[in-house]
Specification:
The protein has nine helices and no strands. It has 203 residues and is mainly alpha-helical. The N terminus is likely disordered. Helix 1 packs across helix 6, helix 5 packs antiparallel against helix 9 and helix 8 packs antiparallel against helix 9. The protein is elongated, with a radius of gyration of 19 Å. The protein has a domain of 132 residues: Tetracycline Repressor, domain 2, CATH 1.10.357.10. 71% of the residues lie in helices and 0% in strands.
Length: 203
């Protein structure tokens, strides 16, 4: 009998779960579906993930979340201004969406939409991942004050998640490109205005 590579089986389970989450959300990430997609022995699944589906989804989301900052850093390198970096980021998202079959969203966004009140552990993973992503983008923005940088970073993340929804509905990467152009234009306008744009909440 061939020896099972347990480490490989564990990684396959997490990668398969990530794919399912991106395609269909948490509701479709059942144990049977994960085993079928990963081709991992069901015994290894329960060995590495005694917490069952919640543990698998949580660890898969963390793995997915760890990729996002590394991806963002590829565009905010300092070789281009923030507007150009945002345009490049959204254009790359469009190309990745289309080349991947135009059927995969962001695992964090998909899972967040599936959450129910008892899903506190998974909700916290999503919250932390979004917060980290927002903070990373905010640090790269040219706005003059911290509150404006964070608010615009929230806008960037919200725009990206929304673009995934529209892109899946239209089977096209164009929503990413449209959003990227507008965000780049806003950043460029900030550079031209004396004192720059500032965040204000109107009551």
């Amino acid at each position: 009998m061939p020896k099972i590579n347990r480490s490989s089986a564990r990684v396959r389970v997490l990668e398969a779960t990530e794919d399912i989450l991106r395609e269909a959300g948490m509701a479709c990430a059942g144990i049977k579906e994960i085993v079928a997609r990963s081709e991992a022995p069901i015994g290894s699944l329960y060995h590495y993930f005694p917490g069952g589906k919640t543990q698998i989804v949580t660890e898969s989301l963390r793995m997915h979340a760890n990729k996002i900052p590394r991806l963002t850093e590829c565009f905010f390198t300092g070789e281009r201004d923030a507007g150009a970096a945002l345009r490049a980021l959204f254009n790359a998202a469009a190309e990745g969406f289309e080349s991947g079959g135009a059927n995969k969203g962001c695992a964090l966004g998909a899972v967040t939409l599936d959450l129910t009140l008892p899903d506190k552990e998974i909700r916290e993973v999503c919250r932390q991942a979004f917060d980290h992503w927002i903070a990373q983008i905010a640090a790269k923005l040219p706005f003059s004050d911290k509150r404006s940088r964070r608010s615009f970073a929230v806008t960037v993340v919200a725009a990206l998640e929304g673009a995934f929804i529209l892109a899946r509905a239209t089977q096209s990467g164009e929503p990413f490109r449209d959003v990227g152009e507008w965000l780049a234009a806003i950043v460029s306008a900030n550079r031209r205005l004396p004192g720059g744009l500032k965040w204000r909440r109107h009551h």
